[in-house]
Amino acid sequence: MTEPDRSDHPERRRRKMQSVTMSDVARAAQVSPSTVSLYLRKPEAVSERVGARVADAIETLGYVPNFVAGGLAAATSRVVSVTVPSLRNAFFSETVTELERLLSGRSLHTLVGHTEYSLEQEERLVRAALSWSPAAVVLTGHTHTDTTRDLLARSGASVVEMWDFGPDPIGRSVGFSHHAVGRCIADHFASQGYGSGAFAGARLTEDARAAQRAQGFLDGMRDRGLSARLVEVAGPASTGAGADLLSRVMEDPVRAVACSNDTVALGVMFEAARRGLRVPQDLAVAGFGDLEFAAQTIPPLTTVRPPAKRIAAAVAEAVLLGPDGDAPRRVDVKFAFCRRGSA
Amino acid sequence: MTEPDRSDHPERRRRKMQSVTMSDVARAAQVSPSTVSLYLRKPEAVSERVGARVADAIETLGYVPNFVAGGLAAATSRVVSVTVPSLRNAFFSETVTELERLLSGRSLHTLVGHTEYSLEQEERLVRAALSWSPAAVVLTGHTHTDTTRDLLARSGASVVEMWDFGPDPIGRSVGFSHHAVGRCIADHFASQGYGSGAFAGARLTEDARAAQRAQGFLDGMRDRGLSARLVEVAGPASTGAGADLLSRVMEDPVRAVACSNDTVALGVMFEAARRGLRVPQDLAVAGFGDLEFAAQTIPPLTTVRPPAKRIAAAVAEAVLLGPDGDAPRRVDVKFAFCRRGSA
DNA sequence: TTGTAAGCGTTATCAG
DNA sequence: CTGATAACGCTTACAA
Fold first, then answer.
1. Are residues A182 and A254 in the same domain?
2. Are B94 and B207 contained in the same domain?
3. Residue B217: CB partners within 8 Å, gap ≥ 6?
4. B107 touches chain A (CB under 8 A)
5. Which phi and psi angles does B304 have, rounded to 5°?
6. What CA–CA distance (Å, rounded) separates B9 from A111?
7. d(Cα B82, Cα B91) in Å, to the nearest integer?
8. pLDDT per position as a tens digit, A106-142
9. Total domains in the fold of chain B
10. Residue B154: CATH number of its domain
11. Which of A7, A75, A171, B311 has CA atoms 20 to 30 A from the CA of A13?
12. Strands (E), chain A
């Protein structure tokens, strides 16, 4: 029990140090530091009497644990790195929100990064993430640079890919088929007898998932013997982009438009109104995302709802599971078609 | 290229450890670990020859630095904790995005947390944040629990409050007057001679900034001798909430409605259309946020643009500045009124 | 159930 | 400009 007396410690003032450490708590509670550590990590493994004393000491001293030291000693930190293309995108901000909520309940902390759809940027973020000995690395999609895959493999980190599947997943993956989403819209258009259609896409070169939805739509239409073409803009999906896209589509009019996402669909609907086109009589419109406003547009927007929360939940579970274990490495969360008035 | 021989390390198999450490790099580069460390932190302080050798060793060994160990040794980590009420809210997702971008350029990593407008939740997040010996803690608003303030004060962490000012800022603060925003809308309504008005608010009890905008609006209207009332819903600001709010407002019709934010305004406009009310002839509508879709609505939405990016930039600067120094502790970033067709 | 002791991989000090 | 050395605060075998 001979704890070092800090007051006569010659080095005490060398750097700014933590005021109350685990040793201080241990001393106050008359136990060893390892007992405090144990109590903090598995309270049930400590006797009730000792536990109470430790809790008391923590309370009165105002002890704040040092996760940095803990992470170093344990060789793995309580950090989960979450990387998404963009946080402005409602899909991803919802996923991150929910994920952060679930993880923080397990005292895991979320380190966010956004790539703006750049794989090089993703590589940089992964490199930084690995420097934190993270409990897990969560990535969006399955397209990564070779270096990224290499870095991840060599680090042995627990990896989860989300929102999409790849042929060769790195660790676990959680998502759904975006190609099927596109087909689903095409099927609906076909069933309504609209005839010709167009896909109004944004940033398709970079956004692999939007590109898959577009391809699924085109494939679906063609399989049904319907004509369909692709119109796209390079910039981010936005209401303004939607308006532009409809103008482009109307250069060679179609009866139905499937959009990159609901934001684009909103722009398409505004532009249709400006042009005096009635939806759905003159033009059918479908979106993707079932964003908050989708049920409020006039008419309400027909769209596809991706299960952002279910993705977050499954990802959280995958993170908790770790790389090993016999749980399925691939979780298909499905999506739901939301038929409303616009198509 | 002499690979480190770890096999003779008796403890090597105790736990999963880092494969390539700084010592390995040092050995490969024929220098001491301190030199490698120095090179990594200030390359210019190391001779060119040695620097090149170290860089080589890092490259060939594939060394990934360990920030956890670094943070422990330095007593301050490269983590910045950023806490916002909600990430689904476009204002905050934009701020976080921009902040993360700016900080990552300085190799600072963003730990996000969201409070759902709960101060208790904020306290929990701050407690967790402090466990990381963060380079800075960024908070939204100036209302915190006593414990939060206490924790922050005792830790000596660098604190930045954003989006709003308080009478007693903890560290630095960056924001603008939300009360002035409300007044600004009221002034505009008055100048247009609309007469009576209403504020359509969401979650005003928890969202202190929205409440201030409401109060500013009410004060502004009254100062001009105009009648104005407050209509509010408890849930989050959304398009659906906007529609509900307009229904409530029309129980006792007014000529002009100021909204909690643009999302609510969008709902108000949709509901107005459903009711056959022409905007702005029958009803003037103003929002807050200048969200992406604001310029696309029919008619385009009159709103107020908060400088989300400027906030992020000023916060990043404050983070870099640290708590000391003679730079002003309080930065007022202003806002811009966007007159468009709806009011 | 609790304690002892040996690290974890860096940074910071100080001397050369 | 470079290197030896002592922390940093905690976890984890292992022993008691």
1. yes
2. no
3. B182, B183, B185, B186, B197, B199, B228, B258
4. yes
5. -125, 130
6. 34
7. 14
8. 999 999 999 999 999 999 999 999 999 999 999 999 9
9. 3
10. 3.40.50.2300
11. A75
12. 79-84, 109-114, 136-140, 159-162, 172-175, 197-202, 228-233, 256-259, 284-286, 303-305, 330-332, 336-338
Question: Beta carbon of B33 within 7 Å of strand C?
Answer: yes
Tokens of B284: 């003037």
Tokens 């302080």 sit at which residue?
B45
Q: Are residues A223 and A240 in the same domain?
A: yes
Sign of CA dihedral B292, B243, A303, A87: positive
A20 in reach of chain B (CB within 8 A): no
pLDDT tens digits, B202-227: 999 999 999 999 999 999 999 999 99
A21 beta carbon < 7 A from strand C?
A: no
Alpha helices in A131-177 (DSSP H): 146-155
Instruction: Name every chain A residue with its beta carbon within 8 A of the beta carbon of B18.
Output: 75, 133
Residues B309, B94: contact at Cβ < 8 Å? Answer: yes
What does residue B86 show for φ and ψ, rounded to 5 degrees?
A: -155, 145
The segment with the largest mean pLDDT, out of A7-11, A152-156, A184-188, is: A184-188
Collect all residues of chain A within an 8 Å Cβ-Cβ radius of residue B86: 97
State the pTM of this model. 0.93
Domain holding B38, by residue range, is 22-61
**Bond prior to B43 in cis (omega within 30° of 0):** no
**Residue B127, Cβ neighbours under 10 Å: how many?**
16
Residue partners of A59: CB distance under 8 A and separation at least 6: none
